[in-house]
Amino acid sequence: MSSINKRITIKEVAKEAKVSPSTVGRAIGGYGYVSGQTRRKILKTAKKLNYHPNLLASNFRRQKTHTIGLIIPDITNPFFTTVARGVEDQARKKQFKVFVCSTDEDPDIEKEYIDDLIQRRVEGFVIAPSTGGGKHLFNLQSDKIKFVVVDREVKNLKADTVHSDNVDGAYRLTNYLIKLGHRRIGIINGAMQTSVAIQRFTGYKKALLESNVPIVDALVKGNDWRMEGSYKHTMELLTSKFPPTAIFAANNILGVGVLRALREMGLKVPTDMSVVCFDDVPVASLMYPFLTVVAQSPYTMGKLAAQILLERISGQGPAERQDIVLKPNFIIRESCRPPRNSGEIHILSGMEDK
Amino acid sequence: MSSINKRITIKEVAKEAKVSPSTVGRAIGGYGYVSGQTRRKILKTAKKLNYHPNLLASNFRRQKTHTIGLIIPDITNPFFTTVARGVEDQARKKQFKVFVCSTDEDPDIEKEYIDDLIQRRVEGFVIAPSTGGGKHLFNLQSDKIKFVVVDREVKNLKADTVHSDNVDGAYRLTNYLIKLGHRRIGIINGAMQTSVAIQRFTGYKKALLESNVPIVDALVKGNDWRMEGSYKHTMELLTSKFPPTAIFAANNILGVGVLRALREMGLKVPTDMSVVCFDDVPVASLMYPFLTVVAQSPYTMGKLAAQILLERISGQGPAERQDIVLKPNFIIRESCRPPRNSGEIHILSGMEDK
DNA sequence: ATAATATATAGTAACGTTATCAGCTCTGTT
DNA sequence: AACAGAGCTGATAACGTTACTATATATTAT
Asked: What is the number of CB-based contacts under 8 A between chain A and chain B?
């Protein structure tokens, strides 16, 4: 029935409705003066001719696209897709479209995507910087391109940000393990070039220092956010001379790697090893062994970031930069117990069905 | 340093390099004749002035966008994000960008997104139709808009498709359970408006019929692809008069719902219940109870779909429509055992660490 | 040597929309 | 009755690029 290929333009509609093209433009675009009568007539004939506005032309003329870019490091990580959902929902409210780009943690791809989207004249970005990325963000800033940073911070970059209180979250998880009696707590961290990793490590150290538990280098592992590394590092911990009695995984993906390694070594959680994790693992949390975590609010993060960005775009935002810090949510489940040979009593009554 | 806001155009570059705007266009766009010398000069001054081509203008002029749309029902489902990765990787190879839109299984949102992307003049779509959607695909076709359907088929729609052999996969899973001795096999299916659900049900029935196992209505559940429904239906199965000894979940999300219900009822897999699942559950598969599944190849699906679409766009594809069927990969893990009180011997030596 | 062709550049006209301006009609106010 | 102003419509000129045409020069074929 309908056909975009006929390429009906405003002119054809104008001729058919016996008005000028500019009037059609006003009627359909909803700007300027049009009488109710002619508007109705125009909309009717537009429908009849199956007119579809050419946004390519419109965007070009106005040099606006009503589009923002979302740059995330990994589209298969549910954390980031949930951020994406938050961004999209908020954008949809304001009639904005979102270009989602996954950089695979590669700064080059990140730059490539950002450049391309600039050429396509997106009106702003929500960016979760990739590991080692972030340098071009300074250029963005000098180019007066609007953007909001989510999840990870970039050193010395003065920009609007939305992120979790990583120090506090890591502190609470570690402290929880200490209070259970653990003294040898391994940490499987992500890439130390990311603020997130640094901050979570800070929280980890803070808890240990506070309780006078020594920080042992051999228990500190990690250099990227991939599961493979996490698996490898956990294996190293497990096969070392003095393996830990508990492991802190610095995000959901790393947490899965830890669990895989434990499983392969035939170690059970929490009987043989206590495990805590930063981030909730959506699917895993529904199954054994039911991780104790601090859960972030990725949806809220995305939503707030988009909100701030869209305010900036429409010129409503405050002059000073905004830095929104969300407290993560501490959820105690059944993945921890006091260490095997500790003198401590069993504080938890976990699931003991193994 | 650089500044997009100066809005350097081809004209400025031309003036600076003392050539005509059209020559600059050819040098930068890489079409038509330009001598090596002037090209170098132009590229140099373009860089000096920090010229960024305005794709808005270029796309408009050529009525091409080098962009395709990807429509998926649920961006938080790892199956679809992996499809997305496949599509993106393939598109990147051909210098195409991908607009990823998640419809939340809502046909109205689906139509809205498709219409918007048409107005933005994407050059084609890869579509995993939402439940109950697909009607507007017929319009797309009469509008001569190119698209490839992935994962789910649309009845009577003659279009290029890429999907799994759902009948066969379901058949193999069900048959496996039967051979283990199960006679009461529950199925938690998705929305029966989707081809996928119908085909998996067909495979299920085929296996039962072939072995003369009666098809019991009370064991057949499901009407959408959400976890909540799956959880509820599993609960119904478990609390019914004659509960099944095994459950077949028709996709990964439903599988998680099944496991959650089992967990809450205190039933262990595979001791108390055997479970098989269509789709691999990426995170869950690394943990207990280690599901037996038929795994699809979402990445390949996305890649092939994009490949076919891009061929169509560049006019290379064959005249006849292509229908690519991928065989799912049967992976036996430890989530199944013979039923408790069956006379069968234990065929499997699963993980018996419970 | 001359014609034919390839190479290189410039000039011009679109692509379809919207911003701006000009003109006209209709209110309502002085 | 004159006039200000709002309401409505139409003509025109962009937005920045690329397709096309025209012209000039270099290269090759005859």
From this structure: 141
More confident residue, B305 or A194: B305
In terms of Cα–Cα distance, which of A352, A300, A81 is closest to B82? A81
CATH code at A273? 3.40.50.2300
Let me know if residue A1 belongs to a domain: no
**Residue A347 counted as domain residue:** no
Q: Range of B268's domain?
A: 166-296
> Are the C-beta atoms of residues A141 and A113 closer than 8 Å to each other?
no
Domain co-membership, A142 together with A192 = no
B25 and B103 part of one domain: no
pLDDT tens digits, B262-279: 988 999 889 999 999 998
Residues B304, B245 share a domain: no
Q: Which structure tokens are listed for A265?
A: 């070594």
CA of residue A19 to C1' of nucleotide D2, angstroms? 33
Of B106-110, B142-146, B335-339, minimum mean pLDDT range:
B142-146
For residues A85 and B20, the answer to whether their CB atoms sit within 8 Å is no
Q: In chain B, how many domains are there? A: 3
Of B5, B78, B116, the CB nearest to A97: B116
pTM for the model stands at 0.86
Q: CA-to-C1' distance for B35 and C2, Å?
A: 27
* Cα B162 to Cα B306: distance, rounded to the nearest angstrom: 10
- Which of A20-24, A253-257, B215-219, B338-342 shows the lowest mean pLDDT across its residues? B338-342
Chain segment A78-129, per-residue pLDDT in tens: 899 999 999 999 999 999 999 999 998 899 999 999 999 999 999 999 999 9
- Does residue B345 form part of some domain? no
When pLDDT is cut at 50, 70 and 90, the band that residue A347 belongs to is very low
Say if residue A3 is exposed, middle or buried (CB neighbours under 10 Å; 0-12, 13-18, 19+).
Answer: middle
Among B204, B141, B97, B186, which residue's Cα sits nearest to residue A112?
B97
pLDDT band at B3 (very low <50, low <70, confident <90, very high): very low
Question: From the alpha carbon of A52, which nucleotide's C1' atom is closest?
Answer: C16
**CA of B184, closest CA in chain A: separation in Å?**
24
* Judgement on whether residues A37 and A81 belong to the same structural domain of the protein: no
Strands A185-188, A246-249: parallel, antiparallel or unpaired by DSSP? parallel
List of A residues 10-39 with CB within 7 A of strand C: 10-11, 21-22, 25, 28-29, 31-32
Q: Is the pLDDT of residue A346 over 60?
A: no
pLDDT score recorded for residue B344:
44
Window 16-35 of chain A: CB closer than 7 A to strand D: 18-23, 26, 32-35
Identify which of B73, B72, B71 has the alpha carbon closest to the alpha carbon of residue B225.
B73
Closest C-alpha among B167, B157, B95, B169 to residue B129: B157
Nucleic acid strand D within 7 Å of A349 CB: no
